[in-house]
Design goal:
CATH topology: Sodium/glucose cotransporter
Distance between the termini: 55 Å
Largest sheet: none
Strand content: under 5%
CATH superfamily: Sodium/glucose cotransporter
CATH architecture: Up-down Bundle
Radius of gyration: 22 Å
CATH class: Mainly Alpha
Amino acid sequence: MDLAIKIIMLVLFFGVMVGVGIYCRKNATDVNGFVLGGRSVGPWLTAFAYGTSYFSAVIFIGYAGQFGWKFGIASTWIGLGNAFIGSLLAWVILGRRTRIMTQHLDSATMPEFFGKRFNSKGLKIGASIITFIFLIPYTASLYNGLSRLFSMAFNIPYVWCIIAMSVLTGIYVIAGGYMATAINDFIQGIIMLFGIVAVIAAVLLNQGGFSEALTKLANVPSETPGAYNSFFGPEPMNLVFVVILTSLGTWGLPQMVQKFYAIKHENDIKKGTFISTAFALVVAGGCYFLGGFGRLFDVDVAKNGFDSIIPTMLGESNLPAILIAVVVILVLSASMSTLSSLVIASSSTLTIDLLKGNIIKKMDEKKQVLMIRIFVVVFIAISAFIAIYQVKSKNESVKFIAQLMGVSWGALAGAFLAPFLYGLYWKKTTKLACWVSFIFGSGIMLLNLFAKQIFPKILQSPINCGAIAMLAGLVIVPIVSLISPKPDKKLVDDAFACYDKQVPAKQKNSLD
């Protein structure tokens, strides 16, 4: 009976996802519709698309487990950073300007923005290659977290979990494009909100309530007594690095920033800012808060790794079958929403920024949409293959979800965050500064991946190294811009003219 409940709920969930994709196929007939939903997506859909793309199995299974184990209840600071830096400030600082300038430059992707903002085909191609290469490990990490949870709930091989998730996500993305993704993200986001609250309540009740759980956590052996229920935990410096990577990193991720391209009205930005922040507070704050109690459970981290912590917590909490089904759908929702966002970002980048005008000289709208759909399939297949290899691999350096995400986020945000931010706000930003940031951000993460022994011990972690790459970019871009040849004044004035368009107010203050 328990298994039947889980299967029925999964079938209903999959049916709704595929149904939405088929329903939205009429919105995916051209590039603008397939990639950006016609730039007419409202605040609720945009905010939930942003939030569900942000938080996936990487957060719920990987990061919540690993950092809850390392930092205890202080890991909740990561969720708060995600809400106020990764969501609130991102919307306030990037939302309006991104929407205005990308429409003015007629750019549908982040690499295309760099190409048109700085009049450089090389920047566009370079950014598209970095995007494709470093989104793959992030995507692979989504499958691993899901497979562990499915194995716990259904006792089925992870390979079938990966295949099912790949096929179903591919169907609704290929059929309905960004609009199908946005609607499904909204549905999945609702599931995530209710699911995380229910799970936290159930797990804490199993430990005797919040106060009792905190008391037990204070008694967990550590070098500093009571460290795991303290305000900043046992490793405050490493905690800061994690907050920086997971919060500031969203500002430079193509799949996240692209959400701002599709906003319809001025009021949508204001509403979306509030909705996205509230969503992050519940989901991210809840996940890390839950992970902080991981040491109260019988977890063999040395044998099974950090990614086993959350599934073990759920398994030992004697949750009813219906709640286990909700948890599975919660993580499935988080993973599929992020996967769909990643494959759209990667496939559109390869088509628009790499193939169009470079390898294939003439591509009409119909051919572009076809190529994007083909690359959706290719990207999902490659990432699924890597995920299967990653789970089977005996190489410990590729075992943990958090490490895969750290490499991906560090490289992408380290390369793109500073050039994109300064490109929106500062007229003196130069093409050379963008190149230096691209090379430094992606290069330092590759070195960290393949030769981490050359780094100081604190930077051997891809998470810490990624955080430094982002912060360094914010210094590198203005310094290189000031010492390199000035950009063409006409080019810059044309790009920034969009902000001074009268709407009835200057457009930098209102989209209406």
